[in-house]
Design a protein that fits this description.
The chain folds into two domains: about 300 residues, FAD/NAD(P)-binding domain (3-Layer(bba) Sandwich), CATH 3.50.50; about 120 residues, FAD/NAD(P)-binding domain, CATH 3.50.50.60. It is built from 15 helices and 22 strands. Strands 1, 2, 3, 4, 5, 6, 7, 18 and 19 form a nine-stranded mixed sheet that branches. It has a five-stranded parallel sheet with strand order 8-17-9-10-13, with helices on one face. About 45% of the residues are buried. The N terminus and C terminus are likely disordered.
């Protein structure tokens, strides 16, 4: 590290966020490239999403064997996962284990929130400011702020009047919450609610769930991993990892049996039943056209609705729990443990606020229409400002002082989900426009970190001091992402994939749906061709760029 005349510490790279991406960036850029790396993390510990999300039942919805780093064989051989789908405490322990193994803590400044980042066109560097008064300057700025890191908190009338406690699943007290003997209200039935409601119901004297939109959820079939399974996985890790890299979601899944109408119904039905019992995650991939054909999707959706009616005793409650608002799979499919069974408990009540919304909070609880529900505590399970929320909380100022918020006023735009036109020397790990939110995110993180490291190596070798996504390349990529999505049922759902869960957020599909394997190939080819789509400059020279043609 060197110091400027302004006494602002100068680094090669400043990273925002110390989740899995931030941890790997320190290791890769510091240890493999020899760069001086500084990380700012707003939390009091490392782990990102898994540091903040401590609500009851929080766990990963990708199997533990895949939701882990693959770049270091010693780490994957030493670490033992205990459950098929790891719970939050175990994932956080893993993140800390990796951080210690790689000795990255010395590069990370905790309890420090980046508030502003300004690009200096004269020096081709970024100056970063924080809420603690600490500043830093760097050639490269990398956001590793996570996809699901900013809670989306609704604004109901008179919320401040409620005399009890209000919690958000995305910002849960680290000491936990004991609901024993309490009357608890839960607003929302998304993934965090689906995971936490069964456990809260076991504690609470009375649990009332307020549901606006019913959500498709399928059984996780979670269980402990046996010692024989653990040993077999470790013996096969090399092959499993390579196969996963060539998979669309970054994990190995059962293949479809065929397209709707081309396979006998008894075969389709039998496979749906098998996957439902084994783990419902594969339910939506039984039919190869499930996300392209509404007929195929209706068949899968009805299968799940039938299961709800088999599980839930009260037909009226089962009817409310049936999702009809969107095609299955067009919102992130939730995995649960006894979610639908929970509504058979005498202490659990489901209230639909679809037609009669929540009117306001009161000192005693929540008012819906003419009814006031009284609570000791209220839980907001209302999700996240996904993909872009953390970035838009920071005042990024690029070329000519233009802010990222202004650049994204009509929706998030990027080139490859890795860079934004007008913001030179700035990388966005798992940014909008990449496949990360539809994949095992750690697989996407590894790819982005490694690709960024290779690009920085290339620029340093070529004497390049500035890179920037070109307007044409970004526009073509944004159109390509949108065109791909338009070929599917995804845009028909008001999902957080579209930013629809945040009032006022522009509706733009935030993910590349072509699969992680195809995306990797695209990025590798662009790199091999001289990083086409990026403009380059050296020591203040004019930007020069390669031409780009985005294929289908």
């Amino acid at each position: 590290m060197s110091s400027t005349t302004e006494t602002i510490p100068t680094y090669d790279v400043v990273v925002i966020g110390a989740g899995f991406a931030g941890i790997y960036l320190v290791h890769k850029l510091r240890d493999d490239l020899g760069l001086d790396v500084k990380v700012f993390e707003r939390g009091g510990g490392i782990g990102g999403t898994w540091y903040w999300n401590r609500y009851p039942g929080a766990r990963c919805d990708f199997e533990s064997d895949y939701y882990s780093f693959s770049f270091n064989d010693e780490i994957q051989q030493e670490w033992d996962w205990t459950e098929r789908y790891a719970p939050q405490p175990e994932i956080l322990r893993y993140a800390n284990y990796v951080a210690d193994k790689l000795d990255v803590r010395g590069n990370i400044e905790l309890n420090t929130t980046v508030t502003r980042a300004v690009f200096d066109e004269a020096s081709d560097t970024w100056t970063v400011s924080t809420d603690t008064g600490v500043s830093a300057r760097a050639r490269y700025l990398i956001s590793a702020t996570g996809i699901l890191s900013v809670p989306s908190t609704p604004k109901f009338a008179d919320m401040d009047s409620f005399k009890g406690e209000i919690y958000h699943t995305g910002d849960w007290p680290h000491e936990g919450v004991d609901f024993t003997g309490k009357r608890v209200g839960v607003i929302g039935t998304g993934s965090s609610a689906i995971q936490s409601i069964p456990l809260m119901a076991e504690q609470a004297d009375q649990l009332t769930v307020f549901q606006r939109t019913a959500t498709f959820t399928v059984p996780a079939a979670n269980r402990p991993i046996t010692e024989n399974e653990r040993k077999a996985t470790k013996r096969s890790y090399k092959q499993l990892r390579e196969q996963a890299r060539r998979a669309g979601t970054g994990v190995l899944v059962d293949q479809p049996v065929g397209a709707f109408g081309e396979v006998e119904e008894r075969i389709v039905r039998g496979e749906l039943e098998r996957r439902w019992r084994g783990t419902g995650f594969g339910t939506t991939s039984v039919l190869s056209d499930n996300l392209r054909s509404i007929e195929a999707n209706n068949y899968t959706s009805q299968f799940v609705r039938d299961k709800i009616n088999e599980i839930v005793d009260d037909p009226a409650v089962a009817k409310l729990l049936e999702p009809h608002d969107y095609p299955i799979g067009t919102k992130r499919l939730a995995l649960d443990t006894n979610y639908y069974d929970t509504y058979n408990r005498e202490n659990v009540k489901l209230v639909s606020v679809r037609d009669t919304p929540i009117e306001r909070f009161s000192p005693a609880g929540i008012v819906v229409g003419d009814t006031e529900y009284e609570f000791d505590a209220i839980v907001l399970a209302t999700g996240f400002d996904a993909a872009t929320g953390a970035l838009e909380r920071i005042q990024f100022e690029g070329v000519d002082g233009r802010t990222l918020t202004d650049a994204w006023a009509e929706g998030a735009k990027s080139y490859l989900g890795l860079a934004v036109e007008g913001f030179p020397n700035f990388f966005t790990v798992t940014g909008p426009g990449c496949p990360a939110i539809l994949t095992n995110v750690i697989a996407s993180i590894e790819h982005h970190v490694e690709w960024i490291a290779d690009y920085i190596t290339y620029m340093r070798a070529e004497g390049i001091t500035r890179f920037e996504a070109t307007p044409d390349a970004q526009a073509e990529w944004v159109k390509h992402v949108a065109d791909m999505a338009a070929m599917t049922l995804y845009p028909t759902a008001a999902s957080w994939y579209m930013g629809a869960n945040v009032p006022g957020k522009p509706r733009v599909f935030l993910a590349y749906i072509g699969g992680l394997h195809n995306y990797r190939d695209r990025c590798d080819q662009l790199a091999a061709d001289g990083y086409v789509g990026f403009a380059h400059a050296s020591d203040g020279a004019p930007l020069k760029s390669e031409q780009l043609t985005v294929g289908a």
